[in-house]
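Hello,

Following up on my earlier ticket. Below are the three sequence lines again, exactly as submitted.
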Amino acid sequence: MNLQSEPVWLLVSLVAVIAFAALNAAYLVWVERKGAGHIQRRIGPKEVGPFGLLQPLADGAKLMSKQLLVPKGVDPVLFKVAPILVLVPAIMSFVTIPFSETLVGRDINLGLLMIFAFASVNVLGILIGGWGSRNKYAVISAVRAVSQNIAYEVPMLVIVLSIVMVSHTLNLNEIVRQQAGFFWHWNIFRLDLSLLMPVSFLVFFVCMLAETNRAPFDMAEAESELIAGAFTEYSGMGFGVFFMGEYANIVIGCALAVILFLGGWQCPFGVASGWWWFLIKLYALIWSVVWIRWTYPRTQFYGLLNLSWKILIPIAFVNLILTSAQMKLDNLF
Amino acid sequence: MSLAKVREALAALVAASQEELPPEEAIESVTEETPEAAAPEGEQAEEAAAPPPPLVDTNHAKKGFHLDVTVAPDQVVQAAEILDGEKYTIEAVTGVDWIKEEQMEVVYDYCDTADFSRVVIRARIPRATPELPTISRVFPGADWHERETHDFFGITFVGHPDLSPLLLPEDADYHPLLKDFTA
Amino acid sequence: MSVFAESQTQETFVVNLGPQHPATHGVLRVKLTMDGEYIDRAEPILGYIHRMHEKNAEVGTWAQFMPNTGRMDYLHALAYNFGYSIAVERAAGIEVPERAEYIRVITCELNRISSHLLWFGAFVLDLGGFTPLLYAFDDREQLLDLLETVTGSRLTYCYYRFGGLYNDIDENFVDGSRAFIKRLRSRMPMYHNLVTKNIILMKRLIDIGPISAEMCRKYGATGPVLRGSGINFDVRKNEPYSVYPELDFDVPVYSECDCMARYMVRMDEIDQSMRIIEQALDKLPDGPIKPEKVPKLIKPPKGDYYAAVEAARGTFSIRLVSDGTNKPYRLKLRSPTFSNLSLYEEASKGMLLADALALMGSLDLVIPEIDR
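Thanks for your patience. The regenerated structure is below:
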């Protein structure tokens, strides 16, 4: 059987992506809980399996065996569609992520654009879920999520724009290929391309945290204010799917950061590049996301919006202008 | 020094109410005004006299407060204004059910946080018609205390914005701290 | 149909925060009338855990009420034991031996630290930071173990008796207290580095939830709320009871009136409590922990008596009315957070929901103590 033949590859990549996303969601919860336990000087899950490694399976079984409760008065269609609207686009985005030079579901030239197109559907799912729940907390949360996502989409896209300008491509694999060699060839250290590269990585990372509704920007599910925000009325697998979508989004966000700034599957020392380097970088970044969550308190909502509109967006535009000026200068000399 | 000022103003207030009373009671209060100069004696005077005198300087170490003033029910607002003027804070409002005397007593605890002193204001009202004006316009903090007192004793604070049950259930029509209350 | 049925006419909607809500720490219900995320009116609704302690007092003897005092503020139960003991001792004229007074102060201050530690964790949890809660619980756990050895319980203490104590402390307790203070001293800088100096926390607390000194006075707010508004009033200093006059400690006062000021007052109070405990342990005299003879049946003379103590949340005071029998005629419990919470409606007007919850956290509410 020819693995490279079109229908087979399609099927294989689809199954692989779904499995990867689901496994990641399950085991990132375990990482999150173990990590939180470690940070908080406790053990974390330990009863199910060695080191609690089977805990995600037990959780999954529990969630799946629970009744899908549809409370009275909700919009049943929107209520049920919302979790799917969060999960499916996240899984779709995996298709274009280059795990290595060859290990990529679809090597599309407009990969970056596609990911951002799908990523913006995520917030729609939260909005629909919050609105459809007919719960005041959920509606407040949905509105928060929308304004937060709009606020952070802008600086994120402007930063990515500057990367696209220096790379001359939207193909993710091509962007990674351009960062070959030692680690100072990674975009984050390419001060010759743009002086503000490290700053733009930070901006991108912060925006990624906000886009995925992670602490300290977890306004949408601020549990001490809004109980569980947009997910308040969800139970069983409805909640589980939201959860999976959220973790899939974190993986996508971190994968993008790795691809755009940290050299993707390239080895820091220019030898033996491959998917393992991609995964190492990816999980290191994901770990830092977990770390931040258990270290910082939540920001205030206006603080969050101020950060975006007053600080991050100006930085992003300055970065864009500097990058283009630098490109112009490079062309001159 | 606010205690001295408050004492003076409250004494005037008490004296004003005494004048309105029938002469024989007024005379009685005059005799009790005399131990004012000697403060520690006030306490003994209180124990000796059958109806307590309206203004007593109490021994703080023994009683826990400095000044104990009984005013007429319609004077509690004036008393509150005097204490408010001297920057006292309201600590609590509560009631006592004197069932044998067919009376209810409302007790206001004030405290001066700047120049420490405690002042107690009391008012006695008939048990059959327990009504007296609210001080929640002077001290908004008295609002909840008066609601609680209404819950427990059924005392109506005239002019209070909302006397619905605070601690008891919404539909409570009983007053548990009355001495004739049985569950 | 819109979720906000009432919004078409008033442009506000009502949200019931509680009685079960992660931020109300118990069974407080706040009826919020919201204009978007802004609070138009926040009306606390009490009574969900009301147990009528005051009536309970009237049916039992004086001594039988002692366990109830530990069940009001379950976080600083010993201060409530203390307040009740002082009130009855004052009424009945019972003398307390010096050793008992010192032990009372030591255990009461240890309990105050545990209360402030729990508040610290829960407050940061309200602000979305989970980790400090478990750090604080870690420290608090040591304290509870320590207090358990002498009082016999971990939360709802009933350790003081009229005129003395139930149980004497031993060497282990003294050493354990010193070790705990040493440990907490080394951990306080960590708390300040991790939490107090955190930029997000500072932004969420500084200039948020102003409560002016005048508002405190009008509502009768006491404790850290009052001291965070620049008023130096602490019952331990201003109306000294027990052996506090013999101990050297400061009353932390911050005049910023915001949530940060109240936060700093409590954090500094932990330091001051440690100072008090150390001095009290140094000065701890030998002797009996109970007076020579305490009457079996206490019958305070007729009259009314007042006693106040500084609990972790403010002035806790008791008004006793005795008719000369072995039962209280009337016993009024004045709980500090009852008054502190009553200013919430005025203070939270026009605030954002998240800020209003920061304000509520900074008041340090213990609901069973409000409802009594």
